[in-house]
Amino acid sequence: MDWRRLIQLLKNHMVFLQTHNFPDPDALAAAYGMQVFLKANGVESTICYAGKIEKNSTKRMMDEFGIKAVHIDDIPRMVEEDYIVTIDAQKYNSNITDFPGDEVACIDHHPTMIPCAYEYSDIRICGACCSIVTDYFIESDTTMDSNTATALLYGLKMDTDSFNRGVTDFDIAMFGYLHKIADNQKINSMYNNNMEIEDLHAYGEAIRNIQIYENVGFAKIRFDCPDGLIAMISDFILGLDVVELSVVYAMRNGGYKFSVRNETAMYHAGSVTQKALDGIGGGGGHFSMAGGVITKEGMKQLGDDPDFAIRKRFLDAIHEEAIIEKKH
Ligand SMILES: [Mn+2]
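Above: query sequence and manganese (II) ion SMILES. Below: predicted holo structure tokens.
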């Protein structure tokens, strides 16, 4: 990370901080933190996104912290000369729309799927994008106010499922910094009020439809629901004592949207998902968490019993992984 270079690059340009298309608390808080950091260093910016803010709790969070994010439709004008910094997302990924501006920089904590030559790139594999943004304040000695610290800590807590998922020593170090400045009571009360009634319907579906094969739990939801919710349900299914890898999928656009979680050292959730969905959609991700889709076209290849075909594809991919693992 070279914060001076980032400031230098962005200075005297129209700057947009773009999150992925269905911004979650980590994306929004990280974008907000970056906006505060840039402003303190003489760079004005606008947070923007395409798609939709899906959860009421995310909308409440934005009100609570005064985060202003503008939908692309409400941006009067964006031209090719404008600069874009992608936050919690990377150019060319399917979850981020290509806006007219120039993606000159990227700040993200996800593995790179399709490389892109940014002028400035800070991609670190850690629990939350909020951790990376926090580091900018520390390194540059920029004072952080309590509201910003609270927002960043909330994003960090949400994206790591309360420090249980994908968390690294770096996240913990950043937590130590934020904790001293943040309003921890506010975080706890926000964190404990995330569940919405509609969420329970999706949980109900998944619980009714759960099938367990060996150590793998499969659950289907027969309606569309937000990515974040599918991920939460996948975490929930992983909590079952007999389940070590969970595959939760919900209907979307005539196909399915997947969230996969792994708690073993034997498999890699990203490569299992990639293999299982190869040729009928696509997928990938981290060691412990992954996502993917089956397209409407891909569904045609699954035959009369798509759920059976999906289970078989995942179990085959897992067995293949386990064999490769043994050979090493
Ligand atoms: Mn994130």
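The mean pLDDT is 94.
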